[in-house]
Description:
Layout: E1 3-7, H1 10-13, H2 26-31, H3 49-63, E2 67-71, H4 74-77, H5 87-102, E3 106-112, H6 118-121, H7 130-146, E4 152-157, H8 159-168, H9 183-202, E5 207-213, E6 217-219, H10 224-247, H11 267-271, E7 277-281, E8 286-289, E9 299-300, H12 318-331, E10 338-343, H13 360-378, E11 383-389, E12 408-411, E13 416-419, H14 421-432
Parallel strand pairs: 1-2, 1-11, 2-3, 3-4, 4-5, 5-7, 6-8, 7-10, 10-11
Antiparallel strand pairs: 8-9, 12-13
Helix pairs in contact: 3-5, 7-9, 8-9, 12-13
The structure holds 4-nitrophenyl beta-D-glucopyranoside.
Amino acid sequence: xxxxxxxxxxxxxxxxAREDGxxxxxxxxxxxxxxxxxxxxxxxxxxxxxxxxxxxxxxxAGLGVNAYxxxxxxxxxxxxxxxxxxxxxxxxxxxxxxxxLAEGVQPVPTLFHWDLPQALEERGGWMDRDVSALFAxxxxxxxxxxxxxxxxxxxxxxxxxxxxxxxxxxVHAPGRLLMNGALPAAHHQLLGHGLAVQALxxxxxxxxxxxxxxxxxxxxxxxxxxxxxxxxxDILHNRLFNDPVLxxxxxxxxxxxxxxxFVQDGDLKTIAAPLDALGINYYNPTRIAAxxxxxxxxxxxxxxxxxxxxxxxxxxxxxxxxLLTGLRARYGAALPPILITENGCSQPxxxxxxxxxxxxxxxxxxxxxxxxxxxAMAEGVDVRGYFxxxxxxxxxxxxxxxxRFGLVHVDFATGRRTPKxxxxxxxxxxxxxxx
Length: 435
Ligand code: PNW
């Protein structure tokens, strides 16, 4: 069965940040620091999904999806990151899983979507190697409760974005500005992934995947310097996270570091544990030029000549086909089946006076990206699922509530949900698919 779904993440939708024993996460801390998010927005309430989840499950049932990708908040399950388990946190996801299954919607939980327990940040966050093992313990705790009903698990969401935005550039939690010094945060996430795969398998968790955010990298010109810079960027964004998992080795990281002393014997074997699927989040390609200063080995030259989303991201559906066929060409038989675990766009999405949201641009975006995915499948790429980001308008990290990605409009003052035109379009699209 091809999985057609929607995706969300805990901190972006749940709210109830201090309820039922949930501990603080690095995103609570970060969003409450002045100047970190647009207009000081936080996820304290967000979509209030923690209370309104029955309505959200009903929205998915009405949409006709057969899968839902959500994330589990580590600090709800283990308020201090490790040690004492908060039963009420697990109870929430247990109820959600049962409600989804009752509607014929397969739950696809992601164990880490950037909301690290604050207590673990105090010991260094993902810069601390021991956090990898603690992540696997957390995975085991969740699986012990849910593995009997959850057939497919995702360990991490986008370790690249978490490393780059959270640890290198400081624009996401935990707000560190380590630049190239952030590489251990990549390795320890990957090691945590590998250890979590072992823990999930031991708990009888069924299928296990990892989600990477990947981008086709275009050199700004055919000049040798631009081509070399594009290669360096491809290594950082894509290959740093795909090669160790699929091939058991790191790409050449000499443009970023002189030493991989944080990699210990046996780590790569752990990281390369066989996967049942690779999750790919696709938003846009990246155009790269030679660096103009001595800092990084590349410059972002910007993709021009395409329409853009409200975020300013270029809309390039064929980039998805290019990405998927490129992965197949690079990894060959080592590439597991692929799930598109996120694809979508932000749009202004104003609620009109008659209570509708006419988001034609999103309909067009989704239609063309699904066509591009199918083109890649026709060219031999084994894709098993597609999840729209997102079910709901939600807390878009540093952008707060200013970027709307949902098929369903959310009025953040009241929590009121209004399905957009794209929701009706996707519903009709799903009705046309073979069962
Ligand atoms: C993803 N980029 O993040 C995340 O998984 C979601 O939580 C998020 O809401 C969604 O995409 C939309 O942003 C990304 O700059 C953040 O390349 C940044 C980038 C890509 C994905």
